[in-house]
Amino acid sequence: MLNIQRFRCEGRERGCVTDERRPVFSFALESDRTDVALRSAAITVDGVSFDASHQVAAPYGGKPLAPFRVYKAELTAVDTYGDTAKAKLSFETGRMGTPWAGKWITDGAYVFREARVSPKPMQFRKRFERKKPVASARIYATAMGIYELFLNGAKVGDRYFAPGFTSYSQNLQYQTYDITDCLTDRNEINVVVAGGWAVGSFVFTRKNRVCADRQALLMEVRVRYEDGTEDVFGTDATWDVTEDGAFRMADLYDGETYDATVDPESIPWRKAVEETPRSHPEPFAEIGAPVKRHERFWPVSHTHVGNAEIYDFGQNMAGVVQMKLNGKQGQVVTVRHAEILNPDGSLNVTFLRTAKATATYTCVDGTQTYSPSLTYMGFRYVSVEGIDPKDLSIRAVAVYSDLESIGSFSCSDPMLNRLQSNIVWGAKSNLVDIPTDCPQRDERMGWTGDIAVFAPTACFNFDMGRFLNKWLTDVRAEQRRGGGIPNTVPVNGYGFPATMPEMAIDWWGDACVLVPWAEYRATGDPSVLERNYPMMKRYVKACKFWANLLSVGKRRYLWHTPATLHFGDWVAPDAPKMSEWQRRSKWTATASLFHTSRLLSEIAELLGQKEDAATYLALSEKVADAYESILTDGNGKLKEEFQTAYVLPLHLGMLRTENVPKAAKNLDALVQKANYGIGTGFPGTPYILFALADNGYVDTAYRMLMNTNCPSWLYEVKCGATTIWERWDGLDENGVCPIGNDGTDIMISYNHYASGAVGDFLYRRVAGLEATEPGYRRFRVRPTLGGNLTAAKASILTPFGKAVSEWEIENGVFRLQVTVPVGCTADVTLPDGKTQTVGSGTYRFKTGC
Ligand code: BGC
Questions:
Q1: Which contiguous run of DSSP H or E holds residue 225?
Q2: How far is the CA of 751 from the centre of ligand 1 (A)?
Q3: Which among 129, 631, 731, 737 counts the fewest CB atoms within 10 Å?
Q4: pTM of whole model > 0.90?
């Protein structure tokens, strides 16, 4: 029997509201038969059918879509056995460019001049009546700042930090809320708008008012009555506004202050005024993955230290607390957040730098609940002051983008399983509307280098489609005139290197190629490449320009602009000094130019751009030759040796075939000399185990993976880490941070996903599940055994259905179970080297080992 496992419109099974004129549909299949493929598929919308056999992204092919409508889509899929399956979904069109009935409004009395803090939240109010029985009602809303929407006292929807973080001068999302069932005869809309990213204090310089001088709100309410008439109204000067509401302060770094004693009926309200924001791009229906609340954690322990109660939630995360309090009118409760404790048990807030990460709540009499909603913190521990523990019940709630978890990895080693969990939690904590570097200190910015290296691992664990596509929309918008990509996207006031705005930076800028590529490999949808191809071309042109500058001969392909303009081998533990990480940019930047030009050649080929493909291939060859002729002795040995400088050319395929074994041997020797400790920075860390294992040094790769001495992944696990750290030596074995101010501006975070990029190795080598055609249309199952592991399993919900590799070794017998989705093919290689090719279904294999 054929079954449709999931059916989506624009990447969503439910709740899709789109402004796309040709939204795309996708579906995955399952069947209890083997060797099944899709024969045909069609989708019917509004009585018109169109072909959907391009299962991964079938474009809408019906009548032109109209705005503000709910559509029903029915999918019929037929497989090669003639079995048929059907599925339905409904999606909704948004405004599709319809002019807003509302105007941008703000508080005209509000003049905000303070530096380095966020403005006070504004609160807007509008009352209206329901005149007749309602058929359907919607609110469309966006803001400069971040907003929370309430209707008749209750929060509408489950989204946080709307309208989301985008490059506001060019891209702005709006949200759609179905309020049909929330309307009563008399209604009151309340909207709190905090500074958020657009107006609030953000980036570590704590700049504020980067995109707007003060908060502003744009809304439209559309009520359709059962008799066919409509009421449409929007924000205008009849709305009330105040800054004396219960939200006293909200800032992404500093936290939130909420006064529950504020009585909305006795505070001064005035009329809002129309605003013309500095930039006001045409808002489009949300395209990203909205931030929501997820897992909840009870404290695993609590202790009394000084005046505070310290709670440990047992998991580092991005989130907020959720409290139930038994309080007295005017009683002030203060909650501070941190990732680690001091030796005396108090909170260590040093590494938060200027971020105050504090929630302050003023109680009313009786039992009440409070949870911040206009901020988030990165924390595992909190200190609570101002309330007796017996009057408080406290939990932590993880807050991150709504990403479907599609992958899992586990094995016989509990420490590796903890590492996988840490990788996943590092991702959850840093996928908060944009890909961030960390969730706790005064950064949380869209550092491009971090996601450039982590994207493949993210794509194994989560469905990243909407999240990455939204972010890439901003990367395109922010690309500099000269082709360079800013180091953080959205830039939002941060502009390093300020002196050379057109500068291209290796690995960080590479995100514009590596991120779409990772998404394409995971989904097989070429549209992500098509959309971003012009950006990639301009970027690689810029990189080539900077490499060529002021050089002659082969040196023109060695990229060595001044090291201070690069990040190089960022945070490499074998060179614990920022200037040294940067000095290595000659190696990392040259390898980056090889990598991006080689990928671009492949992408050009895929997109049918033959000439481009040849040009980029030729460029990559020249770069590889320059690396090998100038930086090595031409015989597989680097003139200056360090791990990353071997890892990149080995893994990326830059060396002449005869030199590969020699370079691999040299890398192996370096790793042994380091006692199997990791020495790579951001660019090398994702690839080092591949560079070893794929070139004959499986044992060394496993010794490095299983190493529990610092620096190593499992050292962090041994020290009790629950996420991935920025620095390998973040804590000593007693749980104390041994690093003082070492000249890196206290750059010590316990929640940076970048070195969690090793997750790629867990899926592709330890479990052995690796796509050989994009989207897993064809994949390989070929576990790499080692590390005394006796079992491993990876499961991925691919665009076509579930793919699984599960192996175990017992009494010298190797057993493997493989699941292949409908329409896919797997090449299964057992440890004896024999390969078998199978179609869809579940298969068991066995051999001695
Ligand atoms: C961030 C990194 C980022 C780096 C750029 C740091 O402060 O936390 O993750 O990529 O700066 O070098």
A1: strand 216-225
A2: 12
A3: 129
A4: yes
